[in-house]
Amino acid sequence: MKTALMITTAMVAALAAAPAMASEKFTFALNWFPVGDHAAYWVAKEKGYFAEKGLDVVIENSKGSGDSIAKVDTGRADAGLADAAVVIGSRARGTTVKVVGIIFDRTPMNFFSKASAPITKPSDLPGKTVGAPPGDSQRLVWPAFANANGIDPNSIKWVNIEPSAKYVALAEGRADAVSDYTTGLPLAEKAVGKGNAVTLNWADYNFQLYAMSIMASEATIKDRPEALRGFLEASYKGWQDVMNDPEGAMEIYKKAVPEIDVVALRENMDLGFELMKTQTFKENGIGAIDKEKMCGSVDLVNTYMGLPTKVDCADAYDDTFLTKIELPFDVQ
């Protein structure tokens, strides 16, 4: 009896002294400085969805899709956000990244100009200056859009501008236009005035392809499959919460990232929702990848981006890590 008591006491003492099970670190590279469609990841972190999957997620900013892809491909991040077209193009240049989930199911690629000097159609662009950082997704995909619309890709001049300074540059006339998703309208209007920002939505000119996506490297896919699966499920639960309670989501986001403009990013977030209210997401869950659309995006990139080698659709994406998370919107 005395021996059993001593063993039990020793076991209790050992358990008390043992450190708590460590969470697995997982670095997620955003594509940009904080914008409305990043709120979901902070919500997932704050509500413990990542922790429930045993993950200690670190969220980092980037300077465009090219930058976030470079981080993931070189192992500085485990997964990241990037435009799907840029992910596809990067495969032809030797990266190992693949799309593992979709964010925007509709194409939001776009140029903003000022109402005083509007650029409303592709033929308005030759001879103009467009501001964007080198890793900007629209800048990288521009040759495909230009060729698809019969424009010389070299007919515009790109001006290097930091992500957070694009709209100020437009307002100050340092570029005739700046590239950004249509969801950036509230930020554009904040800089140039309400009603003074003009859009050139690429989707209106024969350019329908996948846009913002979550991507991961083959190393993450091969070596950390359960971490990636858990990360995606937690992230899309974050998106579901943001859709169900946008105001609560913005409170969490503001607490985590105090510098954000809640009013502008709330509008920015709402515009993002419109890109996600699709039949594909309704039937298959938030983030679902449609094979036909993905392969159509690959064909478009192969045809127009002047890649060194053609990309096989099967190499561009992997949809086996997705858990169905219901879209809480009605879809017409």
UniProtKB/TrEMBL annotation:
The keyword Protein transport does not apply. GO terms for biological process: thiamine biosynthetic process. Keywords: Signal. Residues 1-22 form the signal peptide. It comes from the Bacteria. Residues 37-249 form the SsuA/THI5-like domain. The keyword Signal applies. Gene3D superfamilies: Periplasmic binding protein-like II (3.40.190.10). SUPFAM superfamilies: Periplasmic binding protein-like II (SSF53850). InterPro entries: NMT1/THI5 (IPR027939), SsuA/THI5 (IPR015168). It holds the Pfam family NMT1. This is NitT/TauT family transport system substrate-binding protein. It comes from Aquamicrobium lusatiense.
